[in-house]
Amino acid sequence: MRDRKARDDLYERAAEAWGEDAQLTKAAEEFAELAAVVNRAQNGQADHMDIIEELVDARLMLEQLEFQLDDATVGLAFDQAVADLEDRLEVHGDAE
Ligand SMILES: [Mg+2]
Prior knowledge:
Layout: H1 4-18, H2 20-42, H3 48-68, H4 71-88
Helix pairs in contact: 1-2, 1-3, 2-3
Bound molecules: magnesium ion.
């Protein structure tokens, strides 16, 4: 996997090449494709590899959105969301 700096440089080039509006449109498209393939899998019309293919497309766009939106802020909000999930599941990090 590329290091963080190399990926950030790549995402910067993508934003410059296509523009933020086009990137948002592409992200929405890939997220919709992931949702669609997950639905097809529930009906037996898509398999594990179909999901992985769309998940990778969506993840690539998700990472680019994070880069555009200031991923430090996204990181803090994500950490809070994980903490909220831990609270809901009553995970407290202490070994039993
Ligand atoms: Mg796709």
